[in-house]
Amino acid sequence: MASCRRVLHLSENLPLPFDRRVWMELSALHAGGYQVSAICPMGEDSTAPHEVIDGIHIWRYPPPPPASGFLSYAWEFLYCWLHSARLSLAVLWRRGFDVIHAANPPDTFWALALPYKLAGKRFVFDHHDLCPELYIARFGESRRGSLAHRALGWLERMQFRLADLVISTNESYRQVAIERGRVAPARVVVVRSAPSRERFATVRPVDPALKRGRPYLVAYLGVMAPQDGVDHLLRAARHLIDRRGRDDVSFTLVGAGDSFEDLQRLTHELELDGAVQFTGRVPDAEVERVLATADVCVCPDPLNPLNDLSTMNKVLEYMACGRPIVAYDLREHRRSAAEGALYARPNDESDLAGQIETLLDDPERRRRMGDYNRRRFLERMSWEHSAGELLHAYETLCGPKPNA
Q: Which of 32, 119, 145, 322 is the most buried (most CB within 10 A)?
């Protein structure tokens, strides 16, 4: 098999290097001897149209306007696709590439890869999200079977059909590729999302000031979009205060997203302003201080076809910081955290509150679960374990490194 050592990565979720999974993948490929180029949108802190960071060449295009409805999302995808196609020609001319490695959403990069495949390039589909399920999670069950929903299913099938290699973020996604995408099992490899052991080599000390004068801190970390269930956590907090008389708990919510302002309004409507703090997006050091101080970390993603099959990065970051977890009882929550979490009945906010209270009242159990999570992260779940799987998959696709 001929060697192919030049990789072009396409993504539009976040600017690089701030998309953590993508950046770790690119860094692993670069460290493995591949020549890596990437195309992505610009961000507030990354406006250079071309930049080289740690040997990785990044081409960026101006970001699209914020999207809110289906038509604006469709325009966003087209806008990003056209810019990515334009810049792929620039990369081809200036550096060349043998492999197009595209992360979704959206499931449209197969159309960009098609002419390059006809010219002998290979196409890797990095399956980050179930786009048909994501559409239903964002816009409601009533949209199932709609023209848009069917179109998303067709686009996903085309990604699978054209891919020479599919990278799945967990075993559930691998089964989707095999069963729904009809991809041969040998062409589907699991490369789990996870933080790096290097980033979490030590756990930061507890900072009592973050508890804001109360004995306990409950923390949430992550995106705040309709499918993420942060509203469930807020109503669980109201339940803890109203029905269980818990005025001894502060709640800190770290992150941002489409629902950020709606969640702030809900906090005010529920009269939680004194107990709940929104930090917005903050640097890693601040995230790690909050998590290290938290007595309980919560993963309130409700049960739906998307969340049940998806690995939540926040679960792994909670584990890396040695924190006990409360989560709804979803398939991939259990595969990630195993015995390191208490599992509430799916979508039952009162049971979510009850499981949080159970841990708050049992410091020894919190300690055991935190130790278990930290150990499980270091021994099985950190990015270093996944990086080896990625490089092995590329060797299968492209052949071993010359002179290896």
A: 322
On whether the 208-381 domain is CATH 3.40.50.2000, my answer is yes
Task: Give the H/E segment covering residue 320.
Answer: helix 313-320
Beta strands 56-61 and 216-221 are unpaired
Query: What's the average model confidence in pLDDT over 29-50?
Result: 93
Sheet holding 249-254, edge to edge: 276-280, 249-254, 216-221, 296-299, 325-328, 341-344
Confidence of residue 2 (pLDDT cuts 50, 70, 90): very low
The rounded distance, in Å, linking the Cα atoms of 321 and 274 is 26
The pLDDT score that the predictor gives to residue 68 is 65
Instruction: Summarize pLDDT for 248-257 with one digit per residue, the tens.
Output: 999 999 999 8
Task: Give me the phi and psi of 121, to 5 degrees please.
Answer: -80, 160
What backbone torsions phi and psi does residue 240 show, to the nearest 5 degrees? -60, -40
pTM, to two decimals = 0.88
Q: Measuring CA to CA, how many Å separate 71 from each of 13, 56, 62, 68, 138?
A: 18, 34, 20, 8, 14
